[in-house]
Amino acid sequence: MPSASTTRPTSPARTTRTAHAVRTATAVAAALGVLTLSACGAAETGKSQQAGSDGKTVTLTVPSWVGAQANTAVAAYLLENELGYKVRTQQLGEVLAWDALSKGDVDAILEDWGHPKEEKNYVEEKKTVVRGGDLGVTGHIGWYVPKYFADAHPDVTDWKNLDKYAKHFATAESGGKGQILEGSPDYVTHDDAIIKNLKLNLKTKYAGSEAAQITAIKKYAEEKKPFLTYWWTPQWLNAQVDLVEVKLPPHKEGCDADPEKVACGYPNTPLQKYLNADFAKNGGEAAEFLKNFTWTTEQQNEVALMIADRKMSPKAAAEKWVKANEATWKTWLPK
Known about the structure:
Helix content: 25-40%
Strand content: 15-25%
Number of strands: 9
Order of helices and strands: HEHEHEHEHHEHEHEEEHHHHH
Structural class: alpha/beta
Radius of gyration: 20 Å
């Protein structure tokens, strides 16, 4: 949460979800009804099977964070119900998804926060993956505190003052230092390097998953306790818990090139789609549809909220959104 790239959420947009979130999860997958497939199949061929061996099957990767699951749910629903394809989904970490995309095990990644290394390897050099265009959503990763704490202590929103409030963020597990709550240990973040290079009296603490991090944030907010957390936008929880970003040193091109020397904040990342090169060429209407798929942060959050907060299945949430937004998705269909 989702991946600042490269640092995922480090590229300029995706570049940085730099905090690449390889957002995990067997538990999340089960909870959201995601069908997990084996990573075998066309694996070693390096070629996508033209929308499946029967020409009518599309395989999409499902990241473990709910915003990206919303993309896949809506795309799958429309591929099946409007274009007549069968859709298979496979839950994979971000880097593994790139490998599978290159091999042809999956046909598309619908939300990438920036993986410069993989882009160079698969898009520029091997040419087994092609760009599928903007998703339409801009992601951003940063450090956040609850608004009720920022209102009481306005200067906490400047990183230079964080040590002043470290004691407020300390927990039994932070060893006397201020705690910064992280999500999954699979997310690629620069936070440990930022803490070290800015000489901050902070310590990262991983909740284990996006779901566990959300649970912790909600608990802190309900009890009106101070906390500092790694977080991102878009994210449906932002409509329920009012968070204020702490201003880190501004991101500049190349400031995160060396993961050990990062001392800057995260960039804004226009989230991207990527397709297997063979699928992009031979995938017919399915490939055209996925290239056309683009929506807003608000639209993504609407579906994500139904899945994560209202506990609807991804398919049910997608169906509800599709029925209410025909004018939007009709423009994605092949002409």
